[in-house]
Amino acid sequence: LFLVFPGVIAFVMFNGDLTHADGAYPALVREILPSWAYGIFGAIIFGTILSTYTAALNSVSTLFAFDFYKGVFNKSAPEEKVVTVGKCINICIALVSIALAPILINAPTGLYNFLQEYIGFYNIPLIIIILFGFFNSRVSAIGAKFCFFMHLILYIIAKLLLPDVHFLYIHSVLFFLDILVIFSAIKYRPLPQAFVFQSHSNKVDLTPWKYRKIAATIVVLGVITLYLIFSPLGIAK
Q: pTM of the predicted model, to two decimals?
């Protein structure tokens, strides 16, 4: 909502006259905020961008250092070496992102659509794998890996052979194919024994919050109410 909602407001306010979708947010800020607030708002946005960027850098470097370098390539690596590798990965990713920034800023459909299109390489199989991992104790690692790499290959083929088809249509087809792959893996290559969560080994209290159902209901009703208010049933025209 926080990404899409300002764009919807800008589209209505400027009657769709913006030449580039990425200019919607700056145009909205210039139209609404007083001039003396530009610097404050810019500092807020800059801080938000930096925090998100550093979080992504730390996540990627940690995953690579522990899951690939120490987990696959050098299992006996000392902690100091793993940290050094993580720092090197941080520097490499930062340099690559700086080099790609001028290219991404000229994305023909806008940066948001570009990111949504290429995040589709991995987000759909990840969601399916996580959901099936939560709700089925027989999902195997082989099935999850096959689902992920099959999705990656098919999405690349679809982008090359079907350039005129909108990426959301491709996502919708691959979504059901990924589910079919996971179901097949559960049926033909399940775990020999069902996974059992060892609750006694937890080091933090995982007792469910007694108000969780009430809070979840309020959140869901709040989202539905927002959609209704800003739909043709509400104040939209």
A: 0.60
